[in-house]
Amino acid sequence: MAQLFSKRLLRMLALILLSTFVLTDTDAHAEQPEATPAGRAEFNTTDSYDGKARPWSNLNFNNDPDDFQFAIMTDRTGYFRPGVFGAIVKKVNLLRPEFVMSVGDYIEGLTLDRGILEDEWAEFDALVAPLDAPLFVTPGNHDIANDVMEDIWTERSGRSHYHFLYKNVLFIVLNTEDPPYPTPEVQAIFDEVIRLHSKDRAAARAYAKANPVLGQYFGAADQMRLGDMQRDWALDVLNQHKNVRWTFIFMHRPIWRKPTVNFEAVEDALADRGYTMMAGHIHNYTHETRQGRDYISLGTNGGRWPPFDTKGAMDHITWVSMTDDGPVFANLVATGILEKDKIPDVIPGREFCGPDYGILCQYGDGKKYRPTPTPAEAE
């Protein structure tokens, strides 16, 4: 019996070895492809190769398990353009991010009328319901502008500033509406703007522009955006998480454009670590460097367009790939993210040219070459 068992065992081992040989090599004299990096086994082939030549450059795949990708969405409101935000949600789903960050202004808000606010939040909830990935929200000036709006935010989200860790990367979300609240006079102007906006958007904008009190309010608000308690909380979070791979700070208003004492205290605490500041609010994309780090304010996802010739005015999704060397950013203009069966007649910018690439663009009759079109050609 022992001999029979040994023979069966030997036959089984021989079959296993033979099958392994057949699966990994169809030519006993051929060299096998090099192993994947760090002994990982994601890549394999049964093709045979003579010599060392291979039809690939290397096998250093960008699939480190500690790396991850997330998307950032930006302002939906501020005289929103209907249909844009919902369309961008669908485009985000095409990208399959692990999660989605955002920078606020989800509703028009600004009113004390709870009924209006709840209807607007219900509209927003319906727009983001199709989103496949988790969405992390950030309060904007259209989301928290008075005590009623703050109460609703707290009922919905629990906190207006918070933090979390993902794969040892720290995310801090700040509330840049801390304080102020508008005076009754300013609130009355807000209410009239909202009333007009539901009927005539141009009239609403003209009314708001004609009231200097409103401009004074927003000018003062720009100086008061991060309270003492929130500053202390942020400093404590940073102190508790000193050894993270990277730190992202998300907010609505780009405080660094008019830095306050409290903001500078948080910024100072970040000086010795890798970090990125992300904001929205101004509706056109900007990038600058402070302390050797990226400070980025995003464009729109349906919010009112700035003047047509404003640099960085675009609806877009920011795609972030987190690596050991820090984040890698890619801004995806929304009109360039297409479903597999959507074939547009014309794609703006399809020539992939201009001063950024050192390639002259062709327009008109094929005889005119210049880096950018004239206004007449742009039309």
Core attributes:
alpha/beta; five-stranded mixed sheet; Purple Acid Phosphatase, chain A, domain 2; 32% helix; 379 residues; globular; 17% strand; 10 helices; 3 domains; six-stranded mixed sheet; disordered N terminus
Task: Provide structural commentary.
The structure is a single chain. With 379 residues, the protein is α/β, with parallel strands linked by helices. The protein folds into three domains: 22-61, no CATH class; 68-179 and 224-336, Metallo-dependent phosphatases (Purple Acid Phosphatase, chain A, domain 2, 4-Layer Sandwich); 349-379, no CATH class. Helices cover 32% and strands 17% of the residues. The protein contains ten helices and 13 strands. The protein has helices at 2-24, 84-95, 114-128, 147-157, 184-197, 201-209, 212-221, 228-240, 261-269, 375-378, and strands spanning 68-73, 100-102, 135-136, 162-166, 169-173, 246-250, 275-279, 286-290, 293-297, 316-323, 326-333, 361-363, 368-370. The chain has a six-stranded mixed sheet with strand order 4-5-6-7-9-8, with no helix packed on it. α2 links the parallel β1 and β2. α5 runs antiparallel to α6 (201-209) and α8 (228-240) packs parallel to α9 (261-269). The protein starts with a helix and ends with a helix. 25% of the residues are buried. Mean pLDDT is 84; it is low at 1-10, 13-31 and 364-374.
Brief characterization of the structure:
The protein has 379 residues and is an alpha/beta fold.
The level 1 CATH classification of the largest domain is Alpha Beta
* Helix segment tally: 10
Which shape, going by the Cα principal axes? globular
| Name given to the CATH homologous superfamily of the largest domain | Metallo-dependent phosphatases
Name given to the CATH architecture of the largest domain: 4-Layer Sandwich
Which strand order do you get reading across the main beta sheet? Answer: 4-5-6-7-9-8
Q: What percent of the residues sit in helical stretches (DSSP H or I)? A: 25-40%
Percentage beta strand: 15-25%
Major sheet summary line: 6 strands, mixed
